[in-house]
Design a protein that fits this description.
The protein has 10 helices and 5 strands, in the order H-E-H-E-H-H-E-H-H-H-E-H-H-E-H. The protein is an alpha/beta fold and 246 residues long.
């Protein structure tokens, strides 16, 4: 972890804006950023490299194993390793996007696909699912309290160093069946465990409120259920006043 902190250390103010998307899987975060990049190609930088887009990536292989089949398809140790590695990648993306805005006067804003705040929401879900289990074998398949506490301490420390977005775009949906349908339509090679998406929806709402109330961050909530991607795009562009840049 020291390596990427050294390589992407950030200093100085940002002359443009740094934005980030936030939301459960299949909420349409990457599609939104792709459209923004297409429309504002000369004015923006979008870090849209999703951890799970490439079927051969280590992160996709993690999920194929964790949510696959077999007696050991989920385990606390593997979840902890997955969360730490995804945490580092999302922090790295934030440093990179912030440095692009800082060093490129022609760039008016940068957008990050996901951040350490997404990782924090996922970790909360993994430990909450453990807390809901009564059987010890079931508990052991999810993130342990000790590992969550370690993850939480790293998160609190990194918050002091990772560039904070000027605004978080929260693509929100409270209907787990709607999200699960979108996930199936994306033709992913893994299927989430029952109860995983409903708990994610709860925890993303909680973390979004924490960002606003406790960490004094600007969170723009866009409800996505039943909306086409063009409608979501127009809503985000309007709330961020991006058309002024054209």
């Amino acid at each position: 972890m020291t390596i990427w902190l050294r390589n992407f250390y950030f200093q100085g103010s940002i002359h443009g804006k740094l934005y980030a998307t936030f939301g459960v899987p299949s909420a349409g975060k990457t599609k939104l950023l792709v459209e923004i990049r297409n429309q504002f190609s000369q004015k923006c930088f979008c870090k849209t490299t999703s951890l799970l887009k490439k079927n051969g990536s280590p992160f996709t292989r993690y999920l194929q194993e964790l949510f696959g089949h077999g007696d050991d398809r989920l385990s606390n140790k593997k979840f902890f390793k997955f969360q730490l590695e995804s945490f580092a990648k999302r922090a790295e993306d934030a440093f990179y996007a912030a440095n692009i805005v800082r060093h490129s006067p022609e760039i008016s804003f940068s957008f990050i696909d996901e951040t350490i705040y997404d990782s924090y929401a996922y970790a909360n879900t993994l430990v909450n699912l453990r807390r809901q289990r009564s059987d010890d074998a079931e508990k052991d398949r999810w993130l342990s309290e000790d590992n969550f506490e370690t993850f939480h301490q790293i998160f609190i420390s990194l918050m002091q160093y990772v560039p904070r977005p000027d605004a978080i775009i929260y693509l929100r949906c409270t209907n787990d069946k709607y999200i699960e349908k979108r996930h199936e339509q994306s033709k992913k090679t893994y299927k989430y465990e029952n109860g995983y998406i409903p708990q994610l929806i709860i925890d993303f709402d909680i973390v979004a409120k924490e960002m606003e109330d406790e960490w004094e961050m600007k969170v723009i909530t866009v409800n996505i259920e039943g909306k086409e991607k063009d409608e979501i795009y127009k809503d985000v562009v309007s709330q961020l006043n991006l058309n002024e840049l054209k």
